Amino acid sequence: MNNNPGLGLEELPKELKLILELLKENSLITKGMFEGIDWDLFIRLAIHHRVYSTLFFKVKINELVPQQVVNRFAFEYKKNTFKMLYLSGEMEQVSKLFDQNNLKLIHLKGPILAKELYGDVSLRTSSDLDVLVPISDLSKIDDLLIELGYEKDELVSVLNDWKWRHHHIAYFHPKKQIKLEVHWRLNPGPAKEPSFEELWKRKRTSLTTSNPVYYLGPEDLFLFLVSHGARHGWSRLRWLLDIHQILKQSLNWNKINHLMKKYQFMQVADQSLLLCSRLFGTPLNGELKHRIQSKRSWELARLSVFYYERMVNLHSEPLPLDVANYHKRYLYSIKSFQHKLLFNLSFLYPYPMDMKLLKLPKYLHFLYFPLRPILWAFRKSMTD
Fold first, then answer.
1. Rounded CA gap, 263 and 92, in Å?
2. What is the pLDDT of residues 272-316, one digit of tens each?
3. Is the dihedral angle over the CA atoms 328, 383, 161, 173 positive or is it negative?
4. Which fold, 86-216?
5. Do residues 203 and 215 lie in contact, with contact meaning Cβ atoms separated by under 8 Å?
6. Strands, E, within the chain: which ranges?
7. Does the pLDDT at position 1 exceed 50?
8. Does the N terminus or the C terminus of the chain have fewer Cβ atoms within 10 A?
């Protein structure tokens, strides 16, 4: 692999370096790379990064990989295949139900993404279904999903801040054991992004399902994958592998560049391109190769190495204090100037924690605005 000293990959575990080399399409694997490998750690890393389905076809033909590793990957691969087929059935059922009720629905991830990027639902993992809907339809959708047997996680909100501070709400079907995340935004606010109607006009329809299943247009999908992966620090290689896969497709880079500039995601797009190039050897054309040479691209790419060195799971809360503090700084670092300005201004808007600290009747909630600095200072003094 290309251990460019400017990216700081030297401290990565050798097991992760071997995984990265195996994931490359034109890898230069040598016998020496397999010496001293902790195969238990190798398996844990592959599962953590959700790349075991892709790796399975690499390790089963390599004589240097122990049979117990191949067997474990074969087991995980089969288990994931059944899970993805199960999710595919639910995806079609939900889509059909929405169509019957004249409700618009765009699938963001899940089996449709696996089929679109990898050509086979078994080659990508998904733990749930993620869909995008118009915010105006949330009430109808809530009734529909509850009737279908789903149970909703309630959001704690003050003065309707959920509409822009959050971007999805989770539903869980206890009998089917399926989690469905209903998004009304691609990303948390307050940053701007394409409206649902814009995305709906550019949507695509799956040709592999018996009922219509809609998903994002290619350029909108690139924007979503880049912004989602960057927000999570690219802490799972699967998210970066998605970028590697979509870059193989015929994309309209004029449209992509327009979207990235308009919605202030250009720098994280360049971050993803640089990481793909260095970690997976993803070929980039002249323009893209030139863009990733910027100092800012390298700075942001280096920030993600922290997550690879430590096998960070951002979905496992509470996070270790050092990881939580680092991720907080990271999220601020990747924001554009405009996004930082909006983020800083959002601190003036009351938080649900203000409501927990000082309970006011609903008709007096407007007082949380002038009280916000006082409540923040009080909480700060209690934690110092």
1. 31
2. 999 999 999 999 988 899 889 999 999 999 999 999 999 999 999
3. positive
4. Beta Polymerase; domain 2 (3.30.460)
5. yes
6. 106-107, 129-132, 151-152, 168-173, 178-183, 204-205, 214-215
7. no
8. C
Contacting residues for 304 by C-beta, under 8 A, at least 6 apart = 233, 234, 235, 271, 275
CA 183 to each of CA 106, 138, 310: distance values in angstroms, whole numbers, following the listed order? 9, 9, 30
Sole residue written with tokens 């247009």: 217
What are the CA-CA distances from residue 163 to residues 109, 144, 158, 181, 188 (Å)? 21, 20, 10, 15, 9
**Are 265 and 227 within 8 A, CB to CB?**
yes
Q: What is the mean pLDDT of residues 77-89?
A: 97
Q: In 3D, which of 383, 326, 325 has the Cα closest to residue 357?
A: 383
Q: What is the pLDDT of residue 4?
A: 44
CB 304 within 8 A of CB 275: yes
The closest alpha carbon to 131, from 95, 86, 166, 89, belongs to 95
Decide the pairing of beta strands 129-132 and 178-183: parallel
Task: Give the H or E element holding residue 291.
Answer: helix 286-291
Number of Cβ within 10 Å of residue 250's Cβ equals 5
Residue 120 has φ and ψ, to the nearest 5°, of: -155, 125
Q: Give pLDDT tens digits for 233-252.
A: 999 999 999 999 999 999 99
The label of the residue with tokens 């279908």 reads 148
Given this model, what pLDDT does residue 383 score?
A: 67
129 within 8 A of 181, measured Cβ to Cβ: yes
Q: Which helix (H) or strand (E) is 82 found in, with range?
A: helix 67-100
* Mean pLDDT, all residues of the chain: 93
